[in-house]
Amino acid sequence: MTSPCVVVAGASAAEAPPGIEHAGPRTDIRYAPDAAALAEELAGADILFWWRAERAWLEAAWPAAADLRWIQSASDGVDGLLFPALVQSDVTVTNARGVFDASIAEWAIGAILAFATGLRRSIVDTEHGRWEDGRTRDRVAGSHLVVVGSGPIGRAAARRAHDLGMAVTLVGRAPRDDPEFGRIEGPEGLHAVLAGADHVLDALPLAPGTQRLFDAAAFAAMKPGAVFYNVGRGGTVDEEALLAAVDGGHLGGAALDVFDREPLPPDSPWWSAPNVVVSPHVCGDVADWEEQVVAVFVDNLGRYVRGEPLHNLVDVAAGFGRG
Q: What CA–CA distance (Å, rounded) separates 154 from 101?
């Protein structure tokens, strides 16, 4: 194969992704820091490394992508990349599956522990100089966690919860038996499963069938005092319904790393919502995540050059990585 031409979208040569130099001396790397540059650089390019770009850039530049064969996303989720013309094309898409599983799972477990142990409340009391003793806390062991989204991130969180003595139920795309977790429930059983949960973790991609899956009916199905956590995508949640469930006292709280609108505007009601932890979409961002993502791309680039199967293939019609 001749030397491939790679366009890095959302970066410049002066601020290149760390480790991109390992792509090899025979790789023709171009940089497209903005929409205009992408439209220019895509002509004749074989590969697109989707670093820090916006979907609208690629939609506008798509007519110039006649030679494009493969797109590597720097994210696990691909909802910020896919659009109809790309989905209908024969361009292969891969993602950063595996890079963020452990760190997101650790964040989720940390949030669960913060609510169950009362640590979240203690942090708030510390900021206000309040000493409120005589209160009790919950045990994590023996409580029930429902993880909605049975992909690698959801499974990583489920393993850690199980190690803490929690009962764990997974909900996936379809009901099935799983060698590690026993029975995985399907969407049709979601509300019944939610009724027995002390903690509910949303680890869903934003894809056909997941938009607003957590709606008013889902939150009403949860037992009083349950806590909701979201590490998936904001669009999987009816945020008005969630806010009403928290404000009204039906839910015991929420810890949210993702939102429908990001960043949250200064007047967002989430800033002052009771018993809510707001996290700015950073739950997977460990110190070396950028290097890890680039390493995934460099490994796949070597596979592409050698004519080997690529890792982390995405089912573009379904909107998420393949199992």
A: 8
Task: Record the tokens describing residue 151, joined without a space.
Answer: 């992909």
Where in the sequence numbering do the catalytic residues fall?
233, 262, 281
68-72 long-range contacts, CB within 8 A, separation 24+: 68/42, 70/46, 70/94, 70/304, 70/310, 71/47, 72/47, 72/48, 72/296, 72/297, 72/300, 72/301
Q: How many CB atoms lie within 10 A of CB 270?
A: 17
φ and ψ of 29, to 5 deg:
-105, 125
The pLDDT tens digits along the chain (323 residues) read: 578 999 999 999 999 999 999 998 889 999 999 999 999 999 999 999 999 999 999 999 999 999 999 999 999 999 999 999 999 999 999 999 999 999 999 999 999 999 999 999 999 999 999 999 989 999 999 999 999 999 999 999 999 999 999 999 999 999 999 999 999 999 999 999 999 999 999 999 999 999 999 999 999 999 999 999 999 999 999 999 999 999 999 999 999 999 999 999 999 999 999 999 999 999 999 999 999 999 999 999 999 999 999 999 999 999 999 86
Could you tell me the two tokens for 198? 């002390």
The two three-digit tokens of residue 242, written as one number: 């969630």
